[in-house]
Amino acid sequence: MVRRIDVTGAGGVRLAAWEFAEQPKARAETEGAPGVLLLHGLMGRASHWASTARWLAEKHRPVALDQRGHGRSDKPADGPFTREVYVADAEAAVEQLGLAPVTLIGHSMGALTAWQLAAKRPDLVRALVICDMRASALGAASQREWEDWFKSWPVPFATLADVRKWFGEDDPWVERPSPSRGEFFAEVMAERADGWRPVFSRRQMLTSRETWVYDAHWEELAQVECPALVVRGLDGELGRAESQEMVRVLPRGQYAEVADAGHLVHYDQPEGWRDAIEPFLDGVLTP
């Protein structure tokens, strides 16, 4: 069972949140259970967390948030899309949905939002899972590559099969395309009169990304007081040396890795992802 709940984010932006439970009985049994807020990465959406949220619902109260500019949340033409508003949006979701003390599980940009919120509001956050997000600055070259990559998309796509094939097999900007990557992007497409297009604005995605890609985020990482797990896919974007340094910088950091997984760890290897994070969650969330 999935229930939509709207949240009012920073500046009055309407955000769509999704509460997951396997069935009404399971939801009733988890009343008062530890809250978990799931934060997707850039271009993602709450539904990408469905498989994770379903097994979390066995013991916890998982809620996935469509962040501003994504999914079914508002996409204000003029933004803002700053780090501050993304963190404020997540903070509003935690408070309005009564999730505190919450465990934050974030992928990529969502992981950065999670640890920035944990640093800002330690009173709200019980634990933190960081999935494949770097703390170091990526720089101007990375942003230019993304601009060129977005321009290369052959939109509109005629069919969802074309979406899956291009992102899962043919994307020339990716060294190791995979079927799971194709499925990931198929989930963020919507059918228009001329074909299938992303549910987000690529311009807004670049605007969002440029607010964090030029800066390092080690200082905020060091301010996270709660237990934190850093997870990397062995073929992802977060390297082993940097992930281990992140664990060292975190006051209560732990480390896990998932084999045969790229950047989309929870999508590439859902069972390996569960095996990596469930022991940590059991240790910090079980009453």
Provide an overview of this structure:
The chain has 287 residues and is of the alpha/beta class. It has helices spanning 24-29, 50-56, 83-96, 109-120, 140-152, 160-170, 179-186, 202-210, 218-222, 240-249, 265-268, 270-285; strands at residues 2-8, 14-20, 35-39, 61-65, 102-107, 125-131, 189-192, 195-198, 228-233, 253-258. An eight-stranded mixed sheet has the order 1-2-4-3-5-6-9-10, sandwiched between helices. A two-stranded antiparallel ribbon has the order 7-8. The longest helix has 16 residues, at 270-285.
Keywords:
40% helix, 20% strand, globular, eight-stranded mixed sheet, 12 helices, alpha/beta, two-stranded antiparallel ribbon, 10 strands
- Please indicate the percent range of residues in DSSP E strands (runs of 2 or more): 15-25%
The topology string of helices and strands comes to EEHEHEHEHEHHHEEHHEHEHH
Tell me the structural class: alpha/beta
Total DSSP E strands: 10
Strand order of the largest sheet: 1-2-4-3-5-6-9-10
Largest sheet: 8 strands, mixed
Which stretches of 5+ consecutive residues score pLDDT under 50?
24-28
CA-atom Rg in angstroms:
18 Å
Q: Indicate the percent of residues in helices.
A: 40-55%
Q: Kindly state the mean pLDDT as a whole number? A: 94
In DSSP terms, counting alpha (H) and pi (I) runs of 4 or more, how many helices? 12
Rough outline: globular
For the record, give the distance between the C-alpha atoms at the N and C termini, rounded to a whole number: 24 Å
